[in-house]
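Check my protein:
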Amino acid sequence: MSAVKWTRHSTMPTGFLVTRMKHPNEDDASVLHVLPTLWDLRSTEAWVRFRNTLTDTWATNHIVKFTWLAWW
């Protein structure tokens, strides 16, 4: 799980997009099977969790790289 915090806004964003990126030490299969999920969206932060679709569990032991975009 990862927290994304913003400091320039005090209201919840209208929308939020999170995209998974490939980590330099990661194989292609891992990128395809570990998916980001917007878990919670608040006025000060968003929580992103990562799901391993091969095992149908949360990907708690994976190093992940992601980018996000929020708009108000």
Notes: The chain has one domain: 2-71.
